[in-house]
Specification:
- By secondary structure, the protein is mainly alpha-helical.
- Among the domains are: 26-123, no CATH class; 216-255, no CATH class.
- The protein is built from 5 helices and no strands.
- It has helices at residues 26-69, 75-173, 177-188, 216-227, 246-255.
- Helix 2 (75-173) runs antiparallel to helix 3 (177-188).
- The relative contact order is 0.03.
Amino acid sequence: MTPENETPEVVEGELVSDIALIDQGELGIMIDRFKGEAEGMATAVATLLEGVGEQIIDAAANVQYAADVIAITNEATMNDAASYRKKMGTLGKEMETLRKACSDPFETHKKEIIAVFKPLVTACDEGRRVVGKKVMAFEDKVAEEARLREAKLAEQAEKQRIRDEVKADKLEEAGKEHQADAFRTKAAATVAPTIAPPKAQGMHRRKTWVAKVVDPAAFIAAAHGQLQRELGPGEVSLLTYLNFDMAALKKLATSSDGAVQIPGIKFSQEESAVG
């Protein structure tokens, strides 16, 4: 095992498969112990939630039912409804406080756990990417070498085929039909060998399409032009691919108190009950 904080030296061309990626000794024992304790804790939490969950679902149904059946017909029922609404708000805040009290410690530990494992997970992902590129680069190199070698062999085979055809013609002119046929048969059978370049074992290539916006103005112009005509069969409106940042627009409307104007965007106020 390479000493801590020391990068193993690898000689060019040397096999690296024997370099240990992780100390399977002490660290492995610690990971197994951690997994056992985490599984035990998860089981305890699941049992607790199972008991509490049913009661919370029933309570939620009661609250929703009350909200649905409340009928306001006069000032008394109006004030009673407002009072009941306030109780809902209080209960909701209490439940959210309780939820945070239960979940925040787990969230904190979750973030800490992710932070502990992330360097190695990230290194493995990046390592796979780097090594994959090296493997593909070498595959491309040997594939190109094989292609050039095949081309050279094909050229040589074609020259040999032509030589055999010429010999066959000369032999035929000399009246040596049997020997001429032999050379023609040889010429017809002359085929350049194919070379199969080596492929990495346990790895294959996959092509995926990606999209990148390189000219937003051109896209918007195209979408605008599309609006001026009827869509053809199977044609999709380019507006489908436009995503508006509604949070930013809401923030803009609030900061300008609705004074800002943007073509195609309507700013308005919505009322909601508070208190």
